[in-house]
Amino acid sequence: MDHAYNTLSLAKAYESQGYYQDAKDIYDSLNEKFQGKDTDIQAACTRMKKALENVGSSGVIQTKQDPRVDIKQGDVRVAHHLEEWIRLLVLQKRLGLFRRIQARVL
């Protein structure tokens, strides 16, 4: 992973999407960069370590708030890719519309 893009925002995005290992890697590199002085980043490192421990070999994340809720990590990734696909589909439609309008003007 390119270290130039390792930002707190990217780590939070990875965390929210269920990419805990990627988020932990970024949090760890940020923690090194700030020499352990940022308590929020330290807390995030601990949170990601616990999240990774909760992900078993089945890929199921047990949440501490409600143990009845099981989120499969694969489902989170599929949802992310579906959202991205829909976003790209909308952009493709907008680009097609733009090209038709441009062809009429020129």
Can you characterise this structure?
This protein has helices spanning 8-17, 20-33, 39-54, 73-105; strands at 60-62, 70-72. It is mainly alpha-helical and 106 residues long. The chain has a domain at 1-54. Strands 1-2 form a two-stranded antiparallel ribbon. The protein is elongated and about 60 Å long. The termini are far apart. The relative contact order is 0.09.
Based on the model shown, name its key terms.
106 residues, mainly alpha, 4 helices
Quick recap:
The protein is mainly α. It has a domain at 1-54.
Largest sheet: 2 strands, antiparallel
Query: If helices are DSSP runs of H or I spanning 4 or more residues, what is the number of helices?
Result: 4
Give me the strand/helix succession: HHHEEH
Briefly note the structural class of the backbone.
Answer: mainly alpha
Query: Strand order of the main beta sheet, please?
Result: 1-2
What form results from the Cα inertia axes? Answer: elongated
Beta-strand segment tally: 2
Radius of gyration, Cα only, in angstroms? Answer: 19 Å
**How far apart are the first and last residues' alpha carbons, in Å?**
44 Å
Mean pLDDT: 80
SSE topology:
Blueprint: H1 8-17, H2 20-33, H3 39-54, E1 60-62, E2 70-72, H4 73-105
Antiparallel strand pairs: 1-2
